[in-house]
Design brief:
Layout lengths: L2 E5 L2 E4 L4 E8 L7 E7 L6 E6 L6 E3 L7 E6 L4 E6 L8 E8 L13 E2 L3 E6 L1
Parallel strand pairs: 2-11
Antiparallel strand pairs: 1-3, 3-8, 4-5, 4-9, 5-6, 7-8, 9-10, 9-11
Length: 124
């Protein structure tokens, strides 16, 4: 059993920065491929970033490439998403996800474990 808990969401002005965290329990994240997704009302859940078990393979959505950074801290059993140069279109509920795989994926259907989500709102 794996549980994921996100934190760090909030309200930030356009151009600002925010870091959201995902802390896992039940398994060490060294055994999990991890990912961040986001969703707004009326739209499908979309991939933001994904990172392999070792951290050696990372994928970013084109819309966030160069602005967002995903990282792992195995000592804290936590994955982070550092979000810089935020835009109003980044406003969404951000979800952490995990799967027992060595490979990263942008497909939400491949992930077994999900957090409850944390709201990120970017104002103009």
């Amino acid at each position: 059993q794996v549980q994921l808990v996100e934190s760090g969401g909030g309200l930030v002005q356009a151009g600002g920065s925010l870091r959201v965290s995902c802390t896992a329990s039940g398994r060490p994240i060294s055994t999990l491929a991890m990912a961040w997704f986001r969703q707004v009302p009326g739209k499908e859940r979309e991939s933001v970033a994904a990172i392999s078990r070792s951290g050696g393979n990372i994928l970013y959505a084109d819309s966030v490439k160069g602005r967002f950074t995903v990282s792992r801290d195995h000592a804290k059993n936590t994955v982070y998403l550092q979000m810089n140069s935020l835009k109003p279109e980044d406003t969404a509920v951000y979800y952490c996800a995990a799967r027992l795989s060595t490979w990263v994926s942008a497909d939400p259907q491949l992930y077994n474990y999900w957090g409850q989500g944390t709201q990120v709102t970017v104002s103009s």
